[in-house]
Structures are given as C-alpha cells and as structure tokens.
Amino acid sequence: MNQDQAEMTSLHCIEVSAEGDRVWVSGHDGSCIGRFSKRFGIDVHRTVAEQIEGADQCLYCTHEPAGIAEWEEFRDAMRRHHGIDVPANSIAF
Q1: Alpha-carbon distance 55 to 13, whole Å?
Q2: For the whole model, what pTM was predicted?
Q3: What is the distance between the alpha carbons of residues 41 and 32, in angstroms, rounded to a whole number?
Q4: 27 CB burial (10 A radius; 0-12, 13-18, 19+)
Q5: Helical H runs in the chain?
Q6: By the 8 A CB rule, do 45 and 55 touch?
Q7: Which domain of life is it from (predicted)?
Q8: d(CA 49, CA 32)
Q9: pLDDT value at 52 more than 70
Q10: What angle do CA 52, 48, 16 make, to 5 degrees?
Q11: How many of the other CB atoms lie within 10 Å of CB of 5?
C-alpha cells in the first residue's frame, strides 16, 4: 500500500443531528459504517465493499434505546472495528 492509498483508507466523516441525539459515521468508501441514536441504539457495520464481498453487515448492533454507557460502547466499537475515534462530545446527554 502506498502513501496515497494509506491516506484514503483513513478518510471518514462524522455527522451529528441538529438535536445532538444521533451520530452517523461514513467510511472511506462513503458507506455508513456507524450510527448511534438515543432512541434506536447502536449500529456498527462493515463497509459496503466488504458486504459485496460476502461479509455480514453487522459488527456490533443493538436495537434498544441508548444512554451514556451505550455511547461509550459505540465509541469503543468504532475504534476497535474501524480505527475511528468518535469524539466524546459529539452527542449531548
């Protein structure tokens, strides 16, 4: 992997809802690889490219209301699975 390829794989985007209660993380290929919602819980997914190659979608998913402890679980899962550090203050409690 050359320098340009290494930089491309580290690109991501973190978006926060205007209400501060939902976060979306998009990976280097533009696919949504992480979602956190106080109302709907945690979704940490593989990239679309990995799914096309046959991998399952979910890496760490819950479908229940989420609070501060779940927020930390989401942040940890994003670091562990994708190497992305989602800032703790991205969401308001």
Answers
A1: 22
A2: 0.85
A3: 15
A4: buried
A5: 3-9, 48-52, 68-82
A6: no
A7: Bacteria
A8: 11
A9: yes
A10: 170
A11: 8
E strand spans, the chain = 13-16, 22-26, 32-37, 41-45, 58-61
Q: Tell me how far apart the alpha carbons of residues 85 and 9 are, in angstroms, rounded to a whole number.
A: 14
Contact 45, 34 (CB under 8 A): yes
Read off the amino acid at residue 24. Answer: W
> What span, in angstroms and rounded, lies between the C-alpha atoms of 84 and 13?
10
CA distance 81 to 55: 14
Q: Which two tokens stand for residue 76?
A: 């940890």
